[in-house]
Each structure stands twice: as structure tokens, then as C-alpha cells.
Amino acid sequence: MTTHRRKMERIWCEEVAETLREWADSDTGPECVFLWGRNIWGICHHLQHRFGPDSSTVVTALMHHWPLYSGNPDFPAPHPRADAGVAFHYNGIDKWQETYGENRRDLCEFLAAMLDEWVAYSRKRKA
């Protein structure tokens, strides 16, 4: 891999990590499509919208290491009382509030930390 390409990957990872941290610190999640007063897109879809399809591939690979992982790659954040997929699609549940929202914010923070680790490792390799 060329030095330039590795540098571009680091920059991309830093930007994705910064965005994930912003979402982790937010009570409402990403600013994007709202329907009926609800944020209707998932974390991966928001990332794809902002950073392209590779972002979803990267976070899907990383989320399996998250201690709270639901076991479902399409709906990784667990809900305390419902199946993760059902909770995601149920419009009566705000995706970024209460325990479900805390889990989603925790996932964003975890993913950001994993990307930060990769950037640090990549820098050590001086590429």
C-alpha cells in the first residue's frame, strides 16, 4: 500500500471517528432525515450517506467486538425489552433516547475508539 493511500485512510478514519464521537455526545443522534419527529436512519446508513459505502463495511467489521453487540449485524444495538430489529423499525421508539439510545451512543463511542486505535497503529508504522 502506498504512503499516500495509507495517509488518506488515516484521514478518513479520523473523520469517521470524530463524527461517531459527535453522535455519541448527542441526545438526538445524527442530524439527517427525520420522519414523524423521529430520526429514522440507523448508524450505518448515516455513515454511508456522509462517508460512502466503505464506512458501513468498516463499522460492521468492528461492531462484533463491542461488548453489548446484539448478535445482529443489521441492528447491533440491543434494546432492553425488544428484539433489536423490531425496536429499530418501531416508529414509537426514539432511537436515541433512554436505554436504547444510550446503547447506540455507546456503540458510536466504541467504534470511534477502535478507529482511533487503528490510526495510532498506522502512524507507528510510519507509512
Structural description of this entry:
The chain has 127 residues and is mainly alpha-helical. It has one domain. Helices cover 59% and strands 3% of the residues. The protein has five helices and two strands. Helix 1 (3-24) packs antiparallel against helix 5 and helix 2 runs antiparallel to helix 3 (53-63). The longest helix is centred in the last third of the chain and has 27 residues, at 98-124. The mean pLDDT is 86.
The largest β sheet comes out as: 2 strands, antiparallel
Strand content: under 5%
The backbone outline, from C-alpha atoms, is elongated
Order of helices and strands: HEEHHHH
The share of residues in helices is 55-70%
Rg calculated over all Cα atoms:
15 Å
What's the number of domains? 1
Strand order across the largest sheet: 1-2
| Terminal CA distance | 9 Å
Number of strands: 2
Average pLDDT metric: 86
Poorly predicted parts: none
Number of helices: 5
Question: What structural category do the secondary elements indicate?
Answer: mainly alpha
